[in-house]
Amino acid sequence: xxxxxxxxxxxxQPGGSLRLSCAASGMIFSIYHMGWYRQAPGKERExxxxxxxxxxxxxxxxxxxxxxxxxxxxxxxxxxxxTSLKPEDMAVxxxxxxxxxxxxxxxxxxVTVSS
Length: 115
Description:
mainly beta, four-stranded antiparallel β-sheet, 0% helix
């Protein structure tokens, strides 16, 4: 079955950086569009960034210029490089894979931004 496993979350000070990874299995990774979403306490899940199966990217306005999404099809992995982190970036970050009517989610990884 399809599995998406996120890693790389943790505690970071404001202004710091983290790189999230999402390893996929049980799917033909290269044909899926991949995304990162986040959900802060009391808020709805929101899109952070997506990367298409053709390497096109799109970002939420709140993270443009600070976050970079990338993928390595040979490793079945999508990354989210996060820099200049702010307290408002604190959330559980989820990996998403989608194509046509198929959609899968990871279990999430916590990112805490605090001094």
